[in-house]
Amino acid sequence: MKLKLYLVTGNKHKYEEAKRIFNDTDIDLLMAPLGKFEIQSDDLKAIAWKAALHAYKILRTPIVVDDSGIFIDALNGFPGVYSSYVFRTLGNNGILKLMTGIKNRRACFKTSLAVIVPPLDTIIEDEVCGEIAEKPVGTLGFGFDPIFIPEGEKRTFAQMDIDEKNRYSHRARAFRRLVKWLRDNFML
Ligand code: IMP
């Protein structure tokens, strides 16, 4: 029997990326497009965990919540946990403006997964570091993908298809660890 695990998100891109990681496993990743319950916190883990508790109370089924953000070194980690708000308000061009004249373009995408699969739960975190591009490039993906170049690449995430992005991304790394956790704990 396959385990049915619900990714609580309204973001189809997140779901498509995560779903690939579960190919060839005994885990069926489904999408639960519940409105996201977001607390204010300076910690991705805490935001993901509160959202997971809220979703679990409604759905009562195995769930995972993905809370991600981009942390830019030269901006002391901004936008970090405020990434979603900053993407909606400033967008990629706004971030590039803030970076005008700044040489240190290092940034990391981080993901926190809050997972509830009764009787167990866990938080899994991972990240990918790289650089903020000089200008937006590419049309694939979503969010900050056009301005992020992972280490070891010359292309932005928005120039990569899902499988290529998954070779590097914060989300793919975290979800691969989630598959291992599920296999280890539920003998899947
Ligand atoms: P959240 O996890 O949905 O709260 O995402 C926070 C913000 O970061 C949103 O604006 C997303 O568009 C952006 N974001 C999260 N993950 C990615 C990614 O893999 N690529 C580009 N932007 C992302």
Write up this protein.
With 188 residues, the chain is of the alpha/beta class. The protein has one domain (3-186): Maf protein. 35% of the residues lie in helices and 27% in strands. The protein has six helices and six strands. The chain has helices spanning 12-21, 44-59, 83-89, 91-98, 162-168, 170-186; strands at residues 3-8, 27-32, 63-72, 106-117, 120-132, 148-150. A six-stranded mixed sheet has the order 2-1-3-4-5-6. The longest helix is centred in the last third of the chain and has 17 residues, at 170-186. Bound molecules: inosinic acid. Inosinic acid binds next to β3 and α3.
Helix content: 25-40%
- As laid out across the biggest beta sheet, the strand order is 2-1-3-4-5-6
Please, how many helices? 6
Radius of gyration: 16 Å
**What's the CATH topology label?**
Maf protein
What is the mean pLDDT? 96
Structural class: alpha/beta
Overall geometry comes to: globular
Stretches where pLDDT is under 50 for at least 5 consecutive residues are none
How does the major sheet shape up? 6 strands, mixed
Oligomer: single chain
What is the strand tally?
A: 6
Give the CATH architecture: Alpha-Beta Complex
End-to-end distance, in Å? 9 Å
What is the domain total for the residues? 1
Measured by DSSP, the beta-strand proportion falls in 25-35%
Order of helices and strands: EHEHEHHEEEHH
CATH C-level class is Alpha Beta
What small-molecule ligands were found?
inosinic acid
